[in-house]
Design a protein that fits this description.
Blueprint (H helix, E strand, L loop, with lengths): L1 H11 L6 E5 L11 E7 L17 E7 L2 E7 L10 H14 L3 E10 L9 E8 L28 H13 L5 E7 L8 H9 L4 E3 L3 H9 L3 E11 L10 H28 L1
Parallel strand pairs: 1-4, 1-5, 5-9, 6-7, 7-8
Antiparallel strand pairs: 2-3, 3-4, 5-8, 6-9
Helix pairs in contact: 2-5, 3-6
Bound molecules: hypoxanthine.
Hypoxanthine (HPA) binds next to strand 5, strand 8 and strand 9.
Amino acid sequence: MLEKQLEYIKSKTDFRPDIALVLGSGLGDFADEADIKAVIDYADIPGFPVSTAPSHRGRLILGHIGNANVAIMQGRVHLYEGYSPRSVVSPVFLMKALGAEILFLTNAAGGINKNFSAGDFMVIEDHISSFVPSPLIGENNDDLGPRFPDMSEVYSKRLNKIIVKTATEIGIDIKKGVYVQLTGPAFETKSEIKMCSALGADAVGMSTAIEAQAAKYCGLEVCAVSCISNLACGLTDKILSAAEVEETACKTAPRFRELIKKSVERICNE
Ligand code: HPA
């Protein structure tokens, strides 16, 4: 399937990305920042998983941000949509096959760390993916990566430094922390959040960790930033809703866009 997908994209454009960027909730219109060279609907890519989540638009946009050649994934699929872990990460392998060397992931997440507020950004330093099935289960494709890949540094210290420096320069007090991925689609219970907190997680979400795991496995350099769209269950009296997540994600979108854009520009200039 990967070959077919690659063939299809090559038949549309010879654009070769350096960085692949996955846009999470609220960042859907980030592509306005790019000098666009090609737009491909996910639905037209053979076997490509098509997103059903709110505000995940389902387009691959190829273009320039500053000096960077970027493949922007406008929307992703999640385990809770019913896709297998392998399908969820298949776009990561396609990005690698297209020539990308870096995967930059973004998401909206619930804040667990008591020092976080809704509207904060967190650079992901590590993750806990033990509650979701690994996308690497099954026969290994040795051409993609090793059977037992090392995960001691999934998120690149080099890239994280660039993101933190960029954030500081534009006046964002960026947080750092550990992201835990759960399957969703239900938000967590108070006890589950207590458990995640006891395990060392600073933020919780329904994506990202398995994409990062797959990317590390196939040799991509990885970084990820969460927009803390709400405080996790039990940290406030509020009832959680997708509407609240979307609302905060949209409110913070201009700052998030600026942070991602400037970080991408800097990554390509260093
Ligand atoms: N929990 C899980 N996923 C999320 C949350 C949350 O509180 N906020 C945004 N995505």
